[in-house]
Design goal:
By secondary structure, this protein is of the alpha/beta class. The chain is built from 14 helices and 11 strands. The strands form 4 sheets. The protein has a 4-stranded parallel sheet, with helices on both faces. A 3-stranded mixed sheet has the order 1-2-9, sandwiched between helices. The protein has a two-stranded antiparallel ribbon with strand order 7-8. Strand 3, helix 2 and strand 4 form a beta-alpha-beta unit. The chain binds nicotinamide-adenine-dinucleotide (NAD).
Length: 365
Amino acid sequence: MMKKITLTLERHSTCSCVIHIGYNVLDRIGLLITNTAPAHHYVIICDSNVLPLCGEKLADILRKMKQRTDVITFPAGESSKNIDTAIALISRLIDLGVDRSSVLIALGGGVTGDMVSFIASIYMRSVPYVHVPTTLMAQVDSSIGGKTGIDLSFGKNLLGTFYQPRGTFIDLQLLETLPKSELINGMAEVVKYGIIDDIELFGILEKNIEGIQKRNKKLMETIVGKSCGIKKEIVEIDETDIGIRRILNFGHTIGHAIEAASSYTISHGNAVSAGMIGSARISEKSGYLSSAERKRIEKLIGALGLSGSIPDSLDIEDILSRLKNDKKKEGDSINFVLLKKLGVPFINGSVNEDLMKETIEGLQP
Ligand SMILES: NC(=O)c1ccc[n+]([C@@H]2O[C@H](COP(=O)([O-])OP(=O)(O)OC[C@H]3O[C@@H](n4cnc5c(N)ncnc54)[C@H](O)[C@@H]3O)[C@@H](O)[C@H]2O)c1
């Protein structure tokens, strides 16, 4: 059985995008893609790691259904999420005769999803695409909500658009080949959903550390399903990130500055975890969050194997200056997502600089 979550966006015309979640359902996903996004030609785009894991398999499934299908690939890793790779992939699309009657299939993690969706939004003034996310990060976060993007030398995701997929098709079985570090990386976003929106999810995580590490099927289904549901609800209210969607940034303001200051040697999950701890400490010190809840957050992050601290080698001034240049800041104020309590986040643009500095320093061991 596959679980179905429908994301509906009310704009000039209503647009809806269905998220399907199941276990060992790649065959079914082939069928669902052809029903949801019928096309004359499918092009699967995946990275070099994902190609042997499931790229050829999904292509065979579609070909057996008499669908014209090509697969194109690029080197795995964040360093590929740039304009050169995008142009190289676009050249391949031109060679293959891809047009608006084609559908692109983003098969992979967030790097693939962000880049394919970006290409889909600009190639021939937009072509349809679907997501088949293969990392936990992509299944719970990047494949939902239509944010597309590539990195520039000046910073991450600086070129991008909002462009919704025709559907997101999640096979939880694909998580089984995921390296442990990537599973933990994605868990940071799940913890974030628990903190900002769903105390029940937070409690499930606290009670099931071992099950998560063993990738227990039922548990992963619950975790991914609840996470997709939360993201869907927030995106439905604020597709383009001008209001409530900003609460999804919990831990990310500090986290992005840490990632960049480490030249991306610290993983997104670990950087966001340190950022979530920083934001919880700011919330406590500002008199909003109880010490008991702040401690629960720190305990869960540690128990999952995420790092809540940052190395001594990182330059605090560098992190602070990157915070001040955050692309989501407004004028001179940095918008932090703080907590009144678990499940009750709010945006605060007036955290003072001394508290910011003291908090970042406190993240070093
Ligand atoms: N658009 C959004 O809303 C959004 C949200 C969060 C993150 N992101 C973006 O997502 C990116 C990070 O995504 P990610 O963490 O998935 O990284 P990723 O896409 O680089 O994947 C991580 C690694 O896992 C490998 N991999 C993928 N699926 C696998 C599988 N099933 N088995 C084994 N290995 C597999 C990949 O080849 C890669 O080496 C960042 O660029 C970030 O900016 C976007």
